[in-house]
């Protein structure tokens, strides 16, 4: 049975903005965010590619990837969005009490004597705190640093640049020939795609607005980011959350991206 093969699949998603052709090359709807194929696919077959919803629609009930989207109401219709909840904020208190157990000083001799200055105890030096390792990705290419700055707004872990993931992502872009066509290459465990200019601003627009803004509540430090930031304007999500769920999943720690023919692709692994 086909349903027994879906336990090991891997998440892949693609997105396309709804803005004007000058800013984003929009074709049709968000399912494949611009093409008739299915834009959220989990698979672990090497070099697999598909842009046909019919290839996967019968497998929908057995998807097994983090943040499983709800079943579509009817064929070729986008999933209904899940309502994410914000995690509780960590709390804590660090305090101490002064010591009161010092014994009183002995009575002084009534005979006048020259006062002698008693040296005080040396000040207590605070114990050094353990050195915290810097977050990964700080010395990577510009796009990985931009991604980690955006993840900071969501209070999420940083992603480290991985050359293998970048090679895989660039190959997917080249083979896609300007379309949102996923391709699994060895080592890739998750993949997201979106249309966008192959520039630094184009990457930030895809990463922050096209992908993470599928779940606006991810932006803990700027709750209104997705409704006010220019990076988030012009996208049509139609209830899909797969891109944001992959990028916010803490199991993924490695990422590499590429862009060709106005298609951004990021491959992830752990």
TrEMBL record:
Top-rank taxon, per record: Eukaryota
Feature: compositional bias, Low complexity: 59-90
Signal peptide start and end residues: 1-15
The keyword Signal belongs to this UniProt entry's keyword annotation: yes
Region spans: Disordered: 59-145
Biased composition (Pro residues): 104-113, 120-138
Composition bias, Acidic residues: 94-103
Keywords: Signal
Protein name per Swiss-Prot or TrEMBL: SCP domain-containing protein
